[in-house]
């Protein structure tokens, strides 16, 4: 929808404050990109935003994110009000974390991606579902899911160094955010332990 110069300036100022990690000129560029994406989208949102298809295509083309399951989860995180439409605020603030987030912000983001049912834990089943989509080639002589199960076990062993996780694991095989955070702070590579959900560094 067309916006007055004053309205646009207020929007830029507001998003520069809320998105934190972008400069004013970067926010202006992201709003222009948003307008371009809205023009590509179907008119069902009356110019207020764009849908899942446009979002997925954009993340695929811009950042090389190709995993359908992950892209669906990223869309859900961006779409905070669960309307099926990404608004300009959701777009800019979501990209601020995705592209420039602190380690703390990225840990929360990745954990939420992996916590498929939103119960505050990553279960073995959720780990399996996420990793299942990450393996490109399965050896012909191996049961397809066996490689994934092995990866889940390797990830669990790596994270089992933390007492509270071991306690949870003995009972129900669930990983809490606290345990995930401890593991990632100890070894940053574990941030995407259950599948790639951040853009390539370039």
Describe the structure.
Keywords: Calcium, Metal-binding, Repeat. By secondary structure, the chain is an all-alpha fold. The chain has two domains: 94 residues, Orthogonal Bundle (Recoverin, domain 1), CATH 1.10.238; 88 residues, Recoverin, domain 1 (Orthogonal Bundle). It is built from ten helices and two strands; from the N terminus they run ααααααβαααβα. Strands 1-2 form a two-stranded antiparallel sheet. Helix 1 crosses helix 2, helix 3 packs across helix 4 and helix 7 packs across helix 8. About 4% of the residues have low confidence.
Quick structural gist:
With 202 residues, the chain is mainly alpha-helical.
Topology of helices and strands:
Elements: H1 5-19, H2 24-40, H3 52-63, H4 68-78, H5 88-100, H6 103-114, E1 121-123, H7 124-132, H8 144-159, H9 163-172, E2 174-176, H10 177-186
Antiparallel strand pairs: 1-2
List keywords for this structure.
2 domains, mainly alpha, Recoverin, domain 1, EFCB1 protein, calcium, 62% helix, 2 strands, 202 residues, EF_hand_dom
Query: Low-confidence runs (pLDDT<50, min 5 residues)?
Result: 163-171
DSSP helical segment count:
10
Average pLDDT for all residues:
83
CATH topology of the largest domain: Recoverin, domain 1
Percentage of residues assigned to helices? 55-70%
CATH architectural type of the largest domain: Orthogonal Bundle
**CA-based shape:** elongated
Q: Give the SSE order as H and E letters.
A: HHHHHHEHHHEH
Protein name: EFCB1 protein
Organism: Calcarius ornatus
Keywords: Calcium, Metal-binding, Repeat
InterPro entries: EF-hand-dom_pair, EF_Hand_1_Ca_BS, EF_hand_dom, Recoverin
